[in-house]
Design goal:
Rossmann fold, binds 6-O-phosphono-beta-D-glucopyranose, alpha/beta, 602 residues, Glutamine Phosphoribosylpyrophosphate, subunit 1, domain 1, seven-stranded antiparallel sheet, single chain, eight-stranded antiparallel sheet, 23% strand
């Protein structure tokens, strides 16, 4: 996820401070690199950019002195191309007549860059934002006006994106919305665009909503909207919006955690496109195929994703993988591993010191080091042999949600490909995530009522849902501060069952293949007065035995994939349940006490 901002003012203005301000408001979307450009009516584009945070790059390159009446700013959250000056945005076209910047992912970026080079264009970076500029350049060079050139460029650009672009010698800028956020704002003296409301609210509350498949041409005192599909003009008046800045930054949600839970379908879709087009996927799989032993190494929520990934590897590829908490690896396997073994290191931040320490221990034994990482350019992406991105954008809320689901989805994708199976049906997962969110939110209230006052409860699962139960328990611990223990359901009778008293809540996350066994566990609880709450697909046996059920919509997938997809989706009701209980207990789920998003200490 990146952030773009563009502005056209009536008079020549000190644009620098305006661009810096937009950058600071967008910085929550990512802060790997930042760049600004001003476009004079005639003469050279003034382009200043580098890796680093807004303030430091703005000072280093003196953004504050930039003037003009047309300006662009971009903040980058790296997915394609490590954070560097070359890969930072905005980008110029070959001759420096166009400058533009994007937000999103152009998944056929590598093929396009080869085409552009073959056509004689000057390609300077690996960043997909540059592909957007050259895609427009291609059609401008054929003599098309900018709006038509942008329309034609969309035929070449695959993925979800939005971009802003301008041409020397004109009085306007252009922006297009094709799957990523874009909104416009107007005053009597300017028109601006931004990736989201927070980037433009302080400038104006007169907002022009934009929708996918629309191009806006904008100038100091006006704008035009054109349909990508047929080039027709779209009339749309500005609306006055009253939403507060804080709510706007949370996309209208009360907390980043809820926003990020609802972003899961979008980032799952983006991940699948990135994996379908990644040049690193095959080499990644090759290392797995050639490995003697495979270890899945992580901490916290990422460990639970890895645990589920190990079940997927067994189920779809017939290969074992050993999940281990990173700090325990050396003690448990350090002497046994060697150059024929491979570690898959799963980490959202790519900076968790427990994980980085273990990479060093693995390296010392000659092991292969693979990464599944959200933050591109993070330490793990620099020290691994190969890594695959999680494509979630910036996860702000301390409890991991969208990065967990994309870790699980990436591992399912790898397991299927490893087993020679079709990953095509996974394209249905994003929509199933949304359906699961909707179904969960409709059924949560009575369950929140049942558990919210308990400071102690269990979360049980089995087989594919055992890792899910652990993750659900961790979410409870993180944001409700109740002690919730995750456990294999069959283990519960070997001791922990003693915890059950009248009304004691036990959550059961049931996979469709394990209902009889889960029903046994439920009865062991209910016959002792406990409250069994079952989460799973529609099943009369769960309804008949559990006091409360939360029924998930059945994944619309080939039969073989239903249990795995159900396990992936089952985290969603547990995320939402812990979120609601956290609120019921008066806590802030985004920033829970004592915790940190990334622990770079031992
Ligand atoms: C913890 C976070 O500090 O680190 C968890 O609060 C996270 O949410 C864990 O799962 C591991 O972090 P990472 O970045 O290595 O996945």
């Amino acid at each position: 996820m990146c952030g773009i901002f563009g502005i056209v003012t009536k008079e020549i203005t000190d644009l620098g401070p305006i661009l810096i301000g937009a950058g600071e408001r967008l910085s929550y979307r990512g802060y790997d690199t930042v760049g600004a450009a001003t476009l004079p009516q005639e003469g050279e584009i003034d382009l200043r950019k580098d890796a680093g945070r807004v303030q430091e790059v703005a000072e280093k390159y003196n953004f504050a002195e930039m003037t003009g009446n047309r300006g662009i700013l971009q903040l980058r959250w790296a997915t394609f191309g490590a954070p560097s000056k070359t890969n930072s945005q905005p980008h110029l076209d070959s001759d420096g007549d166009l400058v533009g910047a994007h937000n999103g992912n152009v998944v056929n970026n590598i093929e396009l860059m080869e085409e552009f080079r073959a056509e004689g264009m000057t390609v300077r970076s690996e960043n997909d934002g540059e592909s957007c500029v050259h895609a427009v350049e291609r059609y401008v060079d054929q003599g098309h006006e900018m709006v038509e050139a942008i329309r034609l460029a969309t035929r070449d650009l695959e993925g979800d994106y939005s971009f802003v672009i301008g041409k020397v010698g004109e009085d306007r800028l252009y922006a297009i919305k094709m799957g990523s956020g874009l909104v416009a704002g107007v005053t009597d003296d300017l028109v601006c665009i931004g990736s989201d409301l927070p980037s433009i609210l302080p400038i104006t509350r007169k907002i022009v909503r934009l929708y996918d498949g629309e191009i806006i041409s904008f100038w100091a005192d006006g704008y035009e909207i054109t349909s990508v599909e047929d080039g027709s003009r779209i009339e749309r008046e500005p609306q006055l919006v009253e939403v507060s800045m804080e709510i706007a930054q949370k996309g209208g949600y009360p907390h980043f955690m809820l926003k990020e839970i609802h972003e899961q379908s979008q980032v799952a879709g983006e991940l699948l496109k990135v994996l379908d087009n990644s040049p690193d996927l095959e080499p990644f799989l090759e290392k797995l195929r050639d490995a003697r032993d495979i270890y899945v190494i992580a901490c916290g929520t990422s460990y639970h994703a890895g645990l589920l990934g190990a079940v997927f590897f067994n189920k779809f590829a017939g290969r074992s993988a050993i999940p281990v908490l990173a700090p325990q690896f050396a003690a448990q396997y350090g002497s046994a591993v060697g150059p024929d073994d491979v570690g898959i290191f799963i980490t959202q931040s790519g900076e968790t010191k427990d994980v980085i320490n273990t990479v060093e221990a693995a390296r010392a034994r000659g092991m292969g080091v693979l990464g599944l990482v959200n933050v591109v350019g993070s330490t793990l992406t620099l020290i691994s042999d190969l890594h695959l991105p999680l494509a979630c954008g910036y996860e702000i809320s301390v409890p991991a949600t969208k990065t967990y689901l994309n870790q699980v989805l990436a591992l399912l994708y790898l397991a299927l490909r490893w087993g020679g199976k079709d990953t095509g049906p996974l394209a249905g997962i994003p929509e199933m995530i949304d359906r699961t969110i909707e179904a969960s939110e409709e059924q949560l209230d009575p369950i929140v009522e049942q558990v919210k006052d308990w400071d102690d409860l269990y979360s049980l699962g089995y087989g594919l849902t055992y890792p899910v139960a652990l993750e659900g328990a961790l979410k409870f611990k993180e944001i409700t501060y109740a002690h919730c223990e995750g456990m294999l359901s069959t283990e519960f009778k070997h001791g922990p069952l003693s915890a059950v008293t009248d009304g004691y809540p036990v959550l059961f996350t049931a996979g469709p293949e394990d209902i009889p066994l889960i029903v046994s566990g439920i009865n062991e609880v209910t016959c002792r007065g406990g409250q069994a709450i079952a989460i799973g697909l529609e099943d009369s046996r769960l309804e008949a035995n559990a006091q409360q059920t939360l029924t998930l919509p059945r994944p619309d997938l080939p039969e073989e994939l239903v249990p795995a997809a159900t396990a992936l989706l089952s985290a969603v009701p547990l995320q939402l349940l812990s979120y609601q209980v956290s609120l019921a207990r008066g806590y802030d789920p985004d920033f829970p006490r004592n915790l940190s998003k990334t622990l770079t200490v031992d």
